[in-house]
């Protein structure tokens, strides 16, 4: 069920709110992956920062999709050498 919620939020560019180790967390979800230990994770940009963090599935609870809040992915621009 978590995977479906996350994939839908990523596709629709909806922000998410959830409890991560009992701390309320807001993210802009970017992608799902499996880490080196074989566990599912989601990567997302944390609200009010430029940090993209990894969140372990097993530590996430009470997921809420914020349908009224959409985002545009931040794409880093690398200056070209001339």
What does this structure look like?
By secondary structure, the protein is mostly beta strands. It has a single domain, classed as Roll (SH3 type barrels). The protein is 13% helix and 51% strand. A five-stranded antiparallel β-sheet has the order 4-3-2-1-5. Strand 2 (23-34) and strand 3 (40-46) form a beta hairpin. The model has no long low-confidence stretch (mean pLDDT 87).
Question: What is the CATH topology assignment?
Answer: SH3 type barrels
* Rg measurement, Å: 14 Å
Q: H/E element string?
A: HEEEEE
Outline = globular
Concise summary:
This protein is mainly β and 82 residues long. 13% of the residues lie in helices and 51% in strands. It has one helix spanning 2-12, and strands at residues 14-20, 23-34, 40-46, 52-56, 60-70.
Topology overview:
Blueprint: H1 2-12, E1 14-20, E2 23-34, E3 40-46, E4 52-56, E5 60-70
Antiparallel strand pairs: 1-2, 1-5, 2-3, 3-4
Features of the shown structure:
single chain; five-stranded antiparallel β-sheet; mainly beta; 13% helix; SH3 type barrels; 82 residues
């Amino acid at each position: 069920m978590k995977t479906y919620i996350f994939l839908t939020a990523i596709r629709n560019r909806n922000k998410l709110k959830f409890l991560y180790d009992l701390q309320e967390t807001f993210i802009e979800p970017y992608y799902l992956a499996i880490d080196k230990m074989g566990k599912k994770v989601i990567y997302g940009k944390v609200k009010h920062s430029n940090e993209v963090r990894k969140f372990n599935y097993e530590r996430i609870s009470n997921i809420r999709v914020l349908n009224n809040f959409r985002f545009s992915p931040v794409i880093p621009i690398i200056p070209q050498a001339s």
